[in-house]
Amino acid sequence: MARQPRLKIIYSAILNRDITLVSHQDDDSVDLNATLKEVKESIKNLEQSSFEQKLTFPMDSLQVHVVADKGIIYLCITTRTESQYLPFAFLLRVRDTFSEQPSLISRSYRAGEDEFDRDFRPVLVQILDDFNSGRADKLSQVEEQIEDVKQIMIHNVERVMNRGERLDDLLSKTEELESQGQDFRREARAVFVQSRCRNLKMWIVIVILFLIFVTVVVLFATGVIKS
């Protein structure tokens, strides 16, 4: 079975209406002047919609892929391919990277032809090179691994938070028991003091009665009190 040739992104651009804000052609051997005129004519209707649209259509021996989002058109021209994953993954990467720069977004609606070549063309070239060289697939795998690690960390944080809630409950119960223990100690001390007071009073009464008894006996013995 013959191996399908690797898809290649030949050209990419970001447009506002029919104004090309920034573009890059990776293969100068392909004459795209006539093709680009036809492409611009074909995507005019996309400008009227404010929500994201995706479109793929053939153009001679090439294939055109378009993502239109909020009036900005992200475009790439590739060799023919049955898979739409790579071209649209590329365009979405370009869109997301471009959208991370609010100053470019705000300027794009009034910018002139090729005005963003200095600001964004090196970034566009790097993204295109990543996809054409296959590095983007590896980057996607790394991003998936990072996302997996992120989900694991989120799960661990949730477990720690749940454990923290249980620790808070345990701490609250411990504080409650400690408070009850302090109340018990205060009550026990009060009972102990009351008991000592009662014992002291009893001994005082006993001593007084004993002294009275001794006094009476002495008085009888000395004849002070006669029977």
Report what the structure shows:
It contains 5 helices and 5 strands. It is α+β, with helices and mostly antiparallel strands. The protein folds into 2 domains: 9-154, 2-Layer Sandwich (Beta-Lactamase); 192-226. Strands 2-1-5-4-3 form a 5-stranded antiparallel sheet, sandwiched between helices. A hairpin with a 2-residue loop joins strand 1 and strand 2 (19-25). Helix 2 runs antiparallel to helix 4 (117-133). The longest helix is centred in the C-terminal third of the chain and has 87 residues, at 135-221. The N and C termini lie far apart (145 Å).
Rg for CA atoms: 46 Å
Structural class: alpha+beta
Low-confidence stretches: none
Total count of strands: 5
> Total domains, how many?
2
Q: Which CATH architecture of the largest domain is right?
A: 2-Layer Sandwich
Q: Regarding quaternary structure, how should these chains be classified?
A: single chain
Which CATH first-tier class of the largest domain would you pick? Answer: Alpha Beta
InterPro entries: Longin-like_dom_sf, Longin_dom, Synaptobrevin-like, Synaptobrevin-like_transport, V_SNARE_CC
Membrane topology: Single-pass type IV membrane protein
Subcellular location: Cytoplasmic vesicle, Phagosome membrane; Cytoplasmic vesicle, Secretory vesicle membrane; Endoplasmic reticulum membrane; Golgi apparatus, trans-Golgi network membrane
Domain Longin: 1-124
